[in-house]
Amino acid sequence: MTATTANNKRVDSGPVLDWTAGHGPVTGALSATTGALAVATTGAATGMPPAWALAVGAAGALGHTVAGLKVRNAGRTLAFKASSWLVGAGWTTWAMTTGPLSWAALGSLAAIGVGMGAGARSTALYEEAREDEAIAAAERQIALELSAERRAIAAEWIERIQRICNVTVRVLAVELWKSGNGYSLDLEPRGGITYDRIAQYGPQLSADAKLPHGCTAALGPGIHQGRAILDVTTANVLAELRTYPEDYVPLSVHTGIPWGFRTNGDEVRAYLREQCALVVGPTGSGKTNLLHGILGGFARATDILTFVIDLNAGSAGLPWVLPALNGELTSPDGQPVRPGIDWLAGTYEEAMLMLDAAIAIGLHRKRAYQDLMAREDTDLLPVSAQIPQIMLVIDEGAEILVSTDRQLKALANKICEFIRMQRAMGGRTVITALGATGSVLGNLLIRREAKVRVALTGGETEGMDLSKMFPGRRGLRVDQAPFKGAGFMGTPESPGALFKAWRIKPSQIRDITVATSDRHPRLDAESAKAAGPAYARRWDADRTAWMRALPSDAGILADPAPATGGSAGGGLNLSALRGGPERSGQPGRPREDELLRRFREEIDAQFATAPDPAPRPAGPSLNLSALRGETEQDSPAQRAALAALFAAGPDGTGASAIARALADEHGTTRQTVVGWLKTWTEDGTAVRVGEGTKARYVHRDHTPEPPSND
Q1: Which residue of 230, 371, 395, 426 has the fewest C-beta atoms within 10 A of its own C-beta?
Q2: Using an 8 Å Cβ cutoff, are 523 and 387 in contact?
Q3: What is the mean pLDDT of residues 387-401?
């Protein structure tokens, strides 16, 4: 038999005693009585003086009394412990004198032990009750102090609302926010007054309460029509810069996608299973940053595929696509990293392919998943990781919807068709716009479907009609959110109120792309079949070449043949638009140096830094008039438009013709060209001939008497 087996047998042979445990009522009484019996027996046998036992008992009574006072025991506990020592010492002294082994001595000792046990149990219960009562009293004191604070807050706002709004209210509850940034009051207006009657006085209430800048007193509906919730912000959290949360935990369209945080510190979520979203914000308000935060939330979702349309060179989606396509990212397991979005369209043609595929997916799902919806007993497609929702994000899509350009109108019709038909089949949109104006919000389809709305103000007042953006919400003012990334957000679950978007950094976009690469769902087989090759080949090299192409000024227009006097062939001489030696990388030749010298002279003449050059001779010469005013041109599209105006000759041309000529290459709209022509007419570059629909524009070099700039 091994030593381990022997040890196990010894342990199993009897009870295991914990000699470090404290005494209870029974073991304490037993220990005290047996100890007294042992001392009395030993003392009687050895002739010990009986007074010694009495002295030891008195010392024990005194020591326990001092210790009990230190831990603040109750008086009855102190008395019991002291009397136990004294009674035990008295019995020991008597037993040593008369004999401890008599029946009288043993019987009295047993009675003393029973009394000690009962008394110990009683005092222990009493001490526990005292401790519980002390804790409860402390909690009551804290609650009393909090109640006093709440009562003061309630009384203050009752008086303030009565004085400013002339409305009598009753405060039913005051909740202090855990973040410490403010509090909420549950109000009950008297006399059938509704919450919006008080809400219109929000700015006056905030001023009277002397709230810091960026803090508001916002009133919203309560639990029923006769109640209201007043949210009072006391700390300006909108001024803080908070980065996008770095946990990147999985999300779902069913549980909502966080877009930012409220003034009380709570995150605000967008529930987009059945709702579309509209995000407006002028330049510099943080709209692009919010859009990246939205795309980051979609990337974290396990049941969302994101399609992005951005006709501004695809800039909104490129950070989510290019690092993965270029192989710059590496996953922890060494697998290829998938783009953070599922499809990106930066051109008109790619956007049309995307919309056609998305509409086809919705139509096919309606037929293919009838049995599934019948089993689930629902008229909404059960969106999941196996059948993901398609979120179509369109940057500045509201401007597309109101455009009168022929191509953009065709694109707008496709977008409206997608919004109209795809709700039940898991297709929703997020559309952005530059402002909350009547032209943007005049679209009934957008107003009806986009119940999730965001207005980033950044302190901008132009084009920010918050009453149209959040109808029914009174007291919202642009100056309440003067910080970049701050504004107002409203959802069907959370009325329009102040919020701020997290700052998402480019490095976080890469981190999210890597962290969520294996989380992106795949388009279900039925939908992929309906989408066809347009979807399957979306990442082909020829389809993504535009993402890597760097536009060059020299490549905007074809390089014409060398200029000849009189231009016998009738062609347009655009040699003035050629890149110089520095741009081409070729060594300069004497003729090119001469051209550069004359070009600088032409610039000097344009800005009155040198005498105006002499009139152009009739013979062969360099025509740089097309470059006049080029410093005012901000893009290759403007230069191409000016070249088209010059090419029209003395007959001139109109805005529509120029827009059609530039639409394929630059995506320029008629409204943009009209603005350029107006500017050129004012500075003398062009001359307007005719009025109304017959109006045309002629370059000044083709007019009989070119207008003077002096």
Answers
A1: 371
A2: no
A3: 91
Q: Assess whether pLDDT exceeds 70 at residue 172.
A: yes
pLDDT at residue 79 in the model: 77
Does the pLDDT value for residue 99 go beyond 60? Answer: yes
Average pLDDT over residues 604-629: 44
State the pLDDT at residue 145: 61
Please tell me the CATH code under which domain 554-563+573-615+622-702 is placed: 1.10.10.10
Fold of the 167-235 domain:
Threonyl-tRNA Synthetase; Chain A, domain 2 (3.30.980)
Q: What is the mean pLDDT of residues 406-421?
A: 92
Long-range contacts for 527-530 (Cβ within 8 Å, ≥24 apart)? Answer: 527/361, 527/364, 527/365, 527/387, 529/364, 530/357, 530/360, 530/361, 530/363, 530/364, 530/365
What does the angle CA 365 – CA 416 – CA 276 come to, to the nearest 5 degrees? 75
Determine phi and psi for 412, rounding to 5 degrees: -65, -40
Q: Please give the share of the chain, as a percent, with pLDDT higher than 70.
A: 78
**Cα–Cα distance between 14 and 511 in angstroms, integer?**
62
Q: Which of 633, 625, 705 is nearest to 673 (CA)?
A: 633
Element containing residue 429 per DSSP (H, E) = strand 427-433
Taking residues 557-577, what's their average pLDDT? 39
Phi, psi at residue 72, to the nearest 5°?
A: 60, 50
Half-sphere exposure of 569 (CA within 13 A, CB side): 8
| Residue 434 DSSP symbol | S
Domain parsing of the chain, residue ranges: 26-164, 167-235, 250-545, 554-563+573-615+622-702
> How far is the CA of 191 from the CAs of 178, 197, 300, in angstroms?
33, 12, 49
Rounded alpha-carbon distances, angstroms, from residue 494 to 27, 99, 262, 293, 489: 63, 87, 11, 19, 8
| 487 vs 669, residue with greater confidence | 487
CA distance 529 to 360: 10
Residue 33 burial by Cβ neighbours in a 10 Å radius (0-12, 13-18, 19+): buried
Q: Give, in degrees to the nearest 5, the angle at Cα 705 between 702 and 708.
A: 105
Domain 250-545 sits in CATH 3.40.50.300: yes
- DSSP for 35-90 reads HHHHHHHHHHHHT--HHHHHHHHHHHHHHHHHHHHHTT--HHHHHHHHHHHHHHHH
Residue 524 half-sphere exposure, CB side, CA atoms within 13 Å?
23
pLDDT-based confidence at residue 673 (cuts at 50, 70, 90): confident
Closest CA to 663 of 403, 356, 355: 403
In tens, the pLDDT along 460-519 reads 666 677 888 888 777 777 878 888 889 899 998 888 888 999 999 999 999 999 999 999
Residue 706 is which amino acid?
Answer: P
Helix (H, G, I), strand (E, B) or coil at 689: strand
Domains 167-235 and 554-563+573-615+622-702 share a fold: no
In this prediction, residue 244 carries a pLDDT of: 95
């642009």: which residue's tokens? 478
Is-above-0.70 flag for pTM? no
Give me Rg for the CA atoms of the chain: 43
Q: What's residue 461's pLDDT? A: 61
Cα–Cα dist 202/476, whole Å: 8
pLDDT digits (tens, 9 = 90+) for 65-79: 777 777 777 776 777
Amino acid at 310: D
Report the run of H or E that residue 673 belongs to, with start and end.
helix 670-683
Q: Which residues of 507-524 are buried (b: 16+ CB within 10 A; e: fewer)?
A: ebbbbbbbbbbebbbebb
